[in-house]
Amino acid sequence: MKFQPEHSTAQTIRAYGPGWIDVNAEKITTSIILGAGGLRLAWPCPRFEDLTPDHFAQLATLEAELVVFGSGSRNRFPPPAWLQPLMARRLGLETMDTPAACRTYNILASEGRNVVAALILETQP
Q1: What are the φ and ψ backbone dihedral angles of 117, each rounded to 5 degrees?
Q2: How far apart are the first and last CA of the chain?
């Protein structure tokens, strides 16, 4: 019995490394918001320390059922008050390091879920 579809039309992260991801054969080196349905938005926060409440308010405007937040090279949580716009819309947010967020996004997108990944791709010195 098969549990996964043979082919997914979702935008997929094909590879990743420190400071970059490959989305459908395009190398991306800056933080990004990525949606299974083709959404790609620049997300101006090169480091976790650069995040502000406005970054999470932007996520709350997206049409999604879940946001997977990749916080960089290690798992870090934003202040709970910053998540208020997401909670007001009953929009789920899962926080993990960026490599784990890439893997989780791919699994959910391949299942046909309306998922968005907000990924911090830390610039390398």
Answers
A1: -110, 130
A2: 48
Residue 75 sits in a domain whose CATH number is 3.40.1230.10
The string of pLDDT tens digits covering residues 8-36 is 678 999 999 999 999 988 999 999 999 99
In this predicted structure, what is the pLDDT of residue 7?
53
85, with CB counted inside 10 A (0-12, 13-18, 19+), is middle
Residues in the chain: 125
Tokens of 57: 């308010």
Domain contains 8 = no
Residue 23 lies in a domain: no
Amino acid at site 23:
V
Total tally of structural domains belonging to the chain = 1
Other CB atoms within a 10 A radius of the CB of residue 105 amount to: 29
Domain with 41 in it = 30-119
- Between the CA atoms of 70, 81, 92 and 107, what dihedral angle is there, to the nearest 10 degrees? 10
| Structure tokens given for 95 | 């926080």
